Amino acid sequence: MKFNKYHIVPELKKSLEELGFKKPTDIQFKSIPQILSGQDILAIAQTGTGKTAAFAIPLISMLQQNKHREPEQNVKAIVMVPTRELALQIENVFKELGKYTDIETISLIGGVEIEPQLKKLEQGVDVLIATPGRITDLVHKGHLNLKKIDFLVLDEADHMLNKGFYQDIKHLLQFLPRRRQTLFFSATIDENIKDLAYALVSKPVRIQISPKDPVSKNVDHSVAYVAMDDKRFFLERVLKEHPDQKILVFVRTKVRAERVFKAMERVDIKTTTLHGDKEQEDRFAVLEDFREGKIKVLIATDISARGLDVKGVEYVINYDLPDVAENYVHRIGRTGRGNNRGNAISFCSEEEKPILQEIETYLTQPIRIMSILKTEYEETLAISEAHGNDWRSLIKEAEEAPKLKKKKRK
Ligand code: ADP
Ligand code: MG
């Protein structure tokens, strides 16, 4: 079902269309109608599945439909989040989605001028986003009265527990009205989370989206066995086969990033690198160009790409496998976000096979193997040489077989 068929306010349909959100994601499809009907929910879904809009869409719609604010009701909905960054990110989502509504959203975070925000809070807002710690502080100082709230949202509940907010949240329970709608979102679930959830929600609808597989089903990922020295020819081939796509290439080190960049330059493929040796300003500029599509191929290390949220990355290539298994999921999670589909391919050399095994253990399942016929393999090398570049032997000497670091385990 498309969003334009939903029972949500027209102002929201307009902004959804502008944002290019046509269909709900799985978690949105299952949560939105339940929330609109007034149910508490307990929703578990992996990262990148669109949990923010899963609660923001119905909340905005309900708040817009009932604009009446009772005296002493200085906030209608509280969204608890684990970090300041997330508070700002979610505030933005509310502002974008609520662009044509009268909904007032603020996030209260530490480290910024608090007076203007408190003034706003005094006058009354619809949605307040903050960490449990900050909310506790506001309540104790008398700036915030929770007794009249209608909605309570906990986002990234697992992350909040990891950050030690369990006591704060439990403590806040006594200030909350019994009659309220509670929406509880988490990427993972375990006994602690369940314990917290059931202390907050009442008769919830439980929604769980394939939590066993940490990789989003929108990402089609496979592994190809390629010798270390031949990786660049395969990269060349993939890049030439997808000339117009936005592609993110992951390598193990900064040095390798620059080497791959040079190798591609020699076969007339324009790429750009992103790694920790570059100035922060350069890094922002590179990212901006990649976002805008001025750069099609970005060669990055794990560190530099952490938290990267670029729209429309169609391909992720693991030129090298990551040192830490979990990073495999973070890397390929850069594509296939929201309702988009994504592709990922990993080049695995003989030396990297133990890492592959670790990744598969982490995923609890094998990664599909993209089989390359011997003729195809040779053809890939030949195509490159047909280019008239006899740089293969030159580079081969220069590039020592990289030693694999001992894996750090968390
Ligand atoms: P999560 O909290 O589950 O990790 P987010 O809420 O941050 O995921 O959403 C991930 C990305 O998906 C965001 O960039 C968001 O804009 C996009 N997105 C969410 N819902 C939709 C949708 N229905 N259609 C298209 N894109 C969507
Ligand atoms: Mg989220």
From TrEMBL:
Pfam entry (one): Helicase_C
PANTHER family: ATP-DEPENDENT RNA HELICASE DBPA, ATP-DEPENDENT RNA HELICASE RHLE-RELATED
One of the record's GO cellular component terms: cytosol
Domain Helicase C-terminal: start-end pairs: 230-381
Domain Helicase ATP-binding: 32-207
Name the UniProt record assigns to this protein: DEAD/DEAH box helicase
Domain of life (superkingdom): Bacteria
Family: Belongs to the DEAD box helicase family.
